[in-house]
Amino acid sequence: MIEVVNLHKKFGKFSALSNIHLVLEAGHCIALVGPNGCGKTTLIKCLLGLVVPQQGQILIRGQASIHQHSHRAYLGYMPQIGRYPGNLSIAQLIEMVRNLRPQQAHYDEELIDSLGISSILSKKMSSLSGGTIQKVSAILAFLFDPDILILDEPTAGLDPLSSEILKQKIEKAVKQGKLVLITSHILSELDELVTEVVFMQEGQIVLHRPVHQLIKETGETKLSKAILSILQSKEHHE
Amino acid sequence: MNRILKYVMLDIVKSKLVIGYTLILALLSWSLFSLEDNSAKAVLSLTNVVLLVVPLVTVIFSTIYMYNAAEFIELLASQPLKRVSIWTGFFLGLSAALVTALILGLGLPLLLYADFAMAAVLLTTGIMMSLIFVSLGLWVSSMTRDKARGISTAIFVWLFFAVLFDGLMLLLLFQFSDYPIEKTMIGLTAFSPVDLCRILILLQLDVSALMGFTGALFRDFFGSTKGEWVAFGLLTLWVVIPFYFSTKKFRLKDL
Q1: What are the DSSP calls for A33-93, one per residue?
Q2: Per the count of CB atoms within 10 A, which of A46, A89, B101, B113 is most buried?
Q3: Residue A198, domain CATH
Q4: Residue A153 above 70 pLDDT?
Q5: What pLDDT is recorded for position B151?
């Protein structure tokens, strides 16, 4: 569903992404993990077209996406830190985003109720707490029932209950055959969801493997430990 | 694009700054017309408002607005919308809001008190000024991510066209007074939208004493009507060219 070929991105002299090759298929939940500043968010923003890479190709559902905009109709994006116009209320914001996509026929509004937003719809965006803004971001990401969900640190800042609700929602999406791409640096949170792991370091992909294979290779039961042991053995080889 | 335009308009209309701008323009024009018994004199004073206050408020407001709308732009850019439409939507929204403020504040009293031809020319140049400086403001905001630097650049842009440019022209004039530089001076005038607007207004008002050197040259060179069209054409370029460059920049910008 997503194919990234030879992607390069530099910010000034700093190389944020170099030589990224990645193929992601539908029906999978892929964890994009790595240390802070390794280029996870930049990669995601490239997929969305918010950041324009210097070199390389991104194919989304088989169509080249750089400098294009129509592919974003298939993408739901939940940013790490959602930033929204402060003077709009939650209801106005949702209404506005809907109006911007008139071609959409049906909406997925389940999260508005399940995350407890329906009672505070008239609150202004500027008065919301970080966690509530995260919830709004999640609602917007799922609103158009997209085929591909890109979630940047989705559970960071959410209370345990909401985090669980969101996880169930993600699980359901994967079962429906959608592609879910999640970044996180807290691996234990994702254990139950993830089917594939992509590990990034210094702007490069170090590891891309299905979870069951990882577990089998390392003999570990926890995802985080499995990744750790693979990385250690790699370093050992070098 | 129309939908983006609508939301930008709604957002700006709520802002206190634009309401304040409308009120100040209204206050200035109503009081000038009621103080002067000769409406032509009031029009001349309003000329300075159009040439100095309108560009200052417009360029600073639009630059600050674009920086404050960073979140809004990011949200729009992650939707299936063309970047060019987003940028055009912002340009049109800002222009529409500021032009409305100008028409309400300055246009109404002008149409009521001043002679129609004068009112029309002053209002048209005011509108052109607004469009040009919105366009310049967008360009400034597209060039740097740093809000403080952006706003100081915007102020400098205004200072350059409103004050420094004339000084430079004058300097040139005195330095090369022994040479026939009239044609060069006419050419140079095209580089300042404020000067072009001044000439456009003064050609219409027909007050030769206030025409200034470049204005007189313009008239001499092109004749009144032709001069007006040339000035108007150049002003249109002043809207289009900065907008073109800012759009080009925004298409490739990392958000």
Answers
A1: E-STTSSHHHHHHHHHTSS--SEEEEEETTEE-TT--GGGGGEEEE-SS----TTSBHHHH
A2: B101
A3: 3.40.50.300
A4: yes
A5: 95
**A79's tokens:** 């940013």
Burial per residue of A37-58, b for 16 or more beta-carbon CB atoms within 10 angstroms, e otherwise: ebbbbbbbbbbbbbbbbeebeb
Q: Which ipTM value was assigned to this complex?
A: 0.80
What's the confidence (pLDDT) of residue B209? 59
pTM above 0.90, yes or no: no
Does some domain include residue A100?
no
* B2 and chain A in contact, CB less than 8 A: no
- Distances from the Cα of A181 to the Cαs of A100, A195, A225, B21, B205, in angstroms? 24, 10, 21, 47, 66
Asked if the C-beta of B4 comes within 8 angstroms of chain A's C-beta atoms, the answer is yes
How many C-beta neighbours within 10 Å does residue B163 have? 12
Taking each continuous run of H as one helix and of E as one strand, the counts in chain A are: 7, 10
The burial class, CB within 10 Å (0-12 / 13-18 / 19+), for A32 is: buried
- Using a CB-CB distance cutoff of 8 angstroms, which residues of chain B are in contact with residue A102? 3
Residue type, A1: M
Chain B contact for A126 (CB, 8 A cutoff):
no
pLDDT in tens, B47-99: 888 899 999 999 999 999 999 888 788 888 888 888 999 999 999 999 999 99
Mean pLDDT (chain B, rounded): 87
d(CA B141, CA B129): 18
How crowded is residue A13: how many other Cβ atoms within 10 Å of its Cβ?
5
Residue A218 lies in a domain: yes
A100 lies within 8 A of chain B by CB: yes
The answer to whether position A73 is within a domain reads yes
Exposure letters B104-121 (e unless 16+ CB within 10 A, then b): ebbbbbbeebbeeebbeb
pLDDT confidence of residue A59: 87
Match 């580089």 to its residue by tokens. Answer: B191
Interface touch B255/A96, C-beta < 8 Å: no
In chain A, the number of structural domains is 1
User: Exposed (0-12), middle (13-18) or buried (19+): which is B129, by Cβ within 10 Å?
Assistant: buried
Cα-based distances in Å from B72 to A41, A97, B55, B143: 19, 11, 25, 18
Residue ranges making up the domain that contains A43: 2-82+147-237
Rounded CA Rg of chain B: 19
Task: Establish if A136 belongs to a structural domain.
Answer: no
Interface check for A199 against chain B (CB to CB < 8 A): the answer is no
